[in-house]
Amino acid sequence: MKYAPFLLLAVYLWTGCTMPPPAAPAKPPNIILILADDMGYSDLGAMGSEIATPHLDRLAGDGLLFTQAYNAGRCCPTRASLLTGQYQHATGVGFMTGDLGNPHYQGYLNRQCATLAELLQPAGYATMMSGKWHLGDQPGQRPQQRGFDQFFGVPEGGGVYFMPFRKNRTVVLGDTPIEVDTAHFYTTIAFNDYACRFIAEHTDTSEAPFFLYLPHIAPHFPLQVPDSSLARYLGTYREGFAKLRARRFARQQRLGLLPPHLQLSPPDELVEDWEALSEEEQVCYDRKMAAYAAQITLMDQGIGRLVDLLEARGELDNTLILFLSDNGGTSEQLQQPENCESIGGRTSWTS
After folding, report:
1. Between the CA of residue 198 and those of 63, 79, 127, what are the distances in Å?
2. Is 95 buried (19+), middle (13-18) or exposed (0-12) by CB count in 10 A?
3. Which member of 25, 35, 173, 267 has the lowest number of beta carbons within 10 Å of its beta carbon?
4. Is residue 9 part of a domain?
5. Taking residues 56-71, what's their average pLDDT?
6. Domain of residue 292, residue span
7. pTM score, two decimals?
8. Domain total in the chain
9. How far apart are CA 224 and CA 108, in angstroms?
10. C-alpha atoms less than 13 angstroms from C-alpha of 181 in its C-beta half-sphere
11. What CATH number is attached to the domain comprising 258?
């Protein structure tokens, strides 16, 4: 028995000499977190929709599709919990961004919580954000004070697509307001473009992993899209609410998202009877839904460009991409007196 330690040591030394050297540690994965705003459960092709979302459908098909994920939050509280991993009240964003006179409802992220960006920076990640912040817009509360190396977007919140904005919103790069081409600016396209720009610039000069947070405003109201995008869907929704709902339900069952024995529930009592609407009212509703669908397709197209960039740079296989919505489809009613033809355009202010 007294020789056992020597024999064990000899075996250990011999094994160590004959084994190949340990492989270099793998590069940590890049992380991209994409957030839609007020998008319904069935509004992606992969979830049963007629709306064209081929790029998100591809991600769903190649990855994991979470079909039973529930969220009791909304808007700002969702963003606070998503970025910190804490209950929204613990972050100071128990409701929206207004200060209600209580530390749990102060309306911006407190310093008792850390964001994903603040945690990933010390681990060697480059951190970047392009999109809607909505977690505090005063000095010291913005993305670059909460762990993001780079930021392009709107600190205050959403409700904006075309310039000039109807709401009091600012487009900033870093922490500095910037001038944009008002004739061609559209937030969804700009957010995706800057996300691609940040990744391209980073991968040109660094091997470090990156974290990108891409929170879109789309498809939050107001319903505003370029004319060419709107035209694609005009007429699609003239069949009415009930038929559209039944078609999506049947498609979800075929996709295995819903069990075959499940019965479609009665429509909400607030949903109008399509056949009782006038021709003009039906045209207006079709136009609203066409604009909503176009907003989602535009977002999907930009995400497709982002995925193509990752693939071209050899980064796609080492990138974790997560996509979700801050909450489900909204039932909020936003309506201003306007003629039907203006719905979906630059001046549209409807939901």
Report:
1. 24, 21, 10
2. middle
3. 25
4. no
5. 92
6. 27-342
7. 0.91
8. 1
9. 28
10. 6
11. 3.40.720.10
